[in-house]
TrEMBL record:
GO MF: ATP binding; phenylalanine-tRNA ligase activity; tRNA binding
Chief localization: mitochondrion
Lineage of producing organism: Eukaryota, Fungi, Dikarya, Ascomycota, Pezizomycotina
Entry keyword annotation includes Transcription regulation: no
Function per UniProt: Is responsible for the charging of tRNA(Phe) with phenylalanine in mitochondrial translation.
Organism name: Ampelomyces quisqualis
Record protein name field: Phenylalanine--tRNA ligase, mitochondrial
CDD domains recorded: PheRS_alpha_core (cd00496)
Keywords: Aminoacyl-tRNA synthetase, ATP-binding, Ligase, Mitochondrion, Nucleotide-binding, Protein biosynthesis, Transit peptide
Length: 525
């Protein structure tokens, strides 16, 4: 069938659209090439076919091919510039991955993969990692696992429900529909359990999430997780219960003299339930081993931090406490907090491993515990580092302050460079709804019409890199007559290494505003 063509006017007069061809097939609508004369990075072309509204992002080359996604009748789909300009393949350290409509990982994130700060000699993250590892002798360490994993590894193996917000493109970097940059070290948990190479293991790795911009959040950060398991059958062959074996192992663990607050029982039928396939005595023994092991590690770290901190005094006693928590991978679960410089600080999360995870890893006879922590959070406390961006600095004034062969020392900040605050206000597209959190719908639409705050953060990072210190919403206004929503974000521009001029920040801010319009279809105020 020959395609039927018609002329379409340029959107807002800034594009001359020569023609668009379409043909109807048994499978629906097939769109052929749209020929453009573009004068701008992106414009929005609206077309309509039988009640289906299609919004297509147009890239700046003449005779560009526009990729349409046909939504259901009456629905709206946004094809942003990133979709139209993504390469055919993404190559990471010699491995090639095909891209598709799900791809949302920017070049700046891909370029961060080879850095592997947790393995860099004399880097504070590497020093922190080694300090933690030293408290778990005999545990097998995995520190160089590749960060690109399948959605099965990252989500399915851990029992993430299909509608979990973590699966959304607003939160996760997708290489393609079935491949992501891991959002946590637990993406390797099932494979490590399945390999069954040791009774205990530690994994340290770079992880990736689309997130807020402030002094404690960065799209690439580093986690450490560990686990310890026991074999019920092996214990039985020795004529013992697994609980008896665990209590014998507890006697071998180091003791500490720090005050511990732990007012809750090992499990609670409502607040912190026992798993149906675990005997009470098993869960109690596992919890006791977990808590003794992690208390020893945390006490060791914070005693080192106490010696380095000017704020701590010899009279300030270290205290820790256990708080009941919920995690989808463990039950019962806890968080460990430390009283530090006048506040209770959450340090890590942990719990008894969910038995289905072990079942799916083909080791159903094993039971055990697992924990996870953020290396940046620990290192910031250990060294009094005030801004997470510093970990990525190549400035010798930062790097020269750390050495594996020297005692822990408090970080001495550079001179504080001045901040430059600028606001950006815009009207959302009428079809958009502001979403501070991710949509509950799964699978996440590759082309989303809903506005998400993480999109603003991603654009700010793309334009400004590490020259933006934080971004936060200062105003949310809905027009009483039109119902249109307006948002205002305050951008704090500040370099860690030099003073930014007004001209530099103005140029960054103009580029930021232009890209918000191009990518999100907003209208600047």
């Amino acid at each position: 069938m020959q395609p039927r063509c018609r002329r379409i006017g340029g959107a807002n007069g800034r594009h001359s659209v020569k023609h668009a061809c379409r043909q109807k097939t048994g499978l629906g609508i097939t769109w052929n090439r749209v020929h453009l004369q573009a004068t701008k990075r992106l414009e929005t072309l609206l077309t309509e076919y039988e009640g289906t509204l299609i919004i297509c992002g147009i890239v700046p080359w003449n005779r560009s091919e526009c990729k349409f996604a046909i939504a259901g009748t009456g629905s709206v789909t946004l094809a942003v510039a990133a979709l139209s300009t993504i390469p055919k393949d993404i190559i990471v350290e010699g491995k090639t991955y095909p891209t598709d409509e799900w791809t949302n990982v920017p070049t700046s994130i891909v370029e961060a993969i080879p850095r592997r700060l947790h393995l860099q000699a004399d880097h504070p993250l590497s020093i922190t990692r080694k300090l933690i590892e030293s408290r778990f002798p005999g545990y097998k360490t995995h520190n160089n696992l590749f960060p690109i994993v399948t959605t099965g590894q990252n989500f399915d193996s851990l029992g993430f429900p299909l509608d979990h917000v973590g699966r959304n493109r607003s939160d996760t970097y997708y290489i393609n529909k079935s491949t992501v940059l891991r959002t946590h070290t637990s993406a390797h948990q099932a494979d490590t359990f399945r390999a069954n190479e040791s009774e205990g293991y530690l994994i340290s790795a770079d992880v990736y999430r689309r997130d807020a911009i402030d002094r404690s959040h960065y799209p690439v950060f580093h986690q450490m997780e560990g686990a310890r398991t026991w074999d019920r059958q092996q214990a039985g062959r020795a004529g013992k219960s697994v609980a008896e074996v665990i209590w014998e192992d507890i006697k071998k663990l180091p003791r500490h003299d720090v005050a511990v607050e732990d007012p809750n029982p090992p499990f609670h039928i409502e607040r912190n339930p026992l798993q149906s396939r675990h005997a009470p005595e098993e869960a109690e023994a596992i919890a006791a081993h977990l808590k003794r092991s992690l208390e020893d590690m945390v006490v060791s770290i914070f005693n080192a931090a106490k010696g380095a901190s000017d704020a701590a005094t010899p009279d300030e006693a270290l205290k820790v406490r256990w708080v009941e928590a919920y995690f989808p991978f463990t039950s019962p679960s806890w968080e460990l907090e430390v009283f530090w410089q006048g506040d209770w600080l959450e340090v890590l999360g942990c719990g008894v491993v969910s038995q289905p995870i072990l079942d799916n890893a083909s080791v159903p006879e094993r039971v055990g515990w697992a924990f996870g922590l953020g290396l940046e959070r620990i290192a910031m406390l250990l060294y009094s580092i005030p801004d997470i961006r510093l970990f990525w600095s190549k400035d010798t004034r930062f790097l020269s302050q750390f050495s594996e062969s020297q005692p822990i020392k408090r970080f001495v900040p550079f001179s504080k460079y001045p901040a430059c605050l600028k606001d950006v206000s815009f009207w959302l597209r009428s079809s958009s709804s502001a979403a501070g959190g991710a949509s509950p719908i799964h699978p996440p639409a590759p082309l989303q019409s809903a506005f998400h705050e993480n999109d603003v953060m991603e654009i700010a990072r793309e334009v400004c890199g590490d020259l933006v210190e934080d971004v936060h919403l200062t105003d949310d206004f809905t027009h009483p007559k039109t119902g249109r929503k307006s948002l205002c974000y305050r951008i704090n521009y500040r370099s860690l290494e030099r003073t930014l001029t007004n001209r530099q920040t103005n140029e960054l801010h103009e580029r930021l505003g232009a890209l918000l319009v191009d990518r999100l279809g907003v209208e600047l105020r």
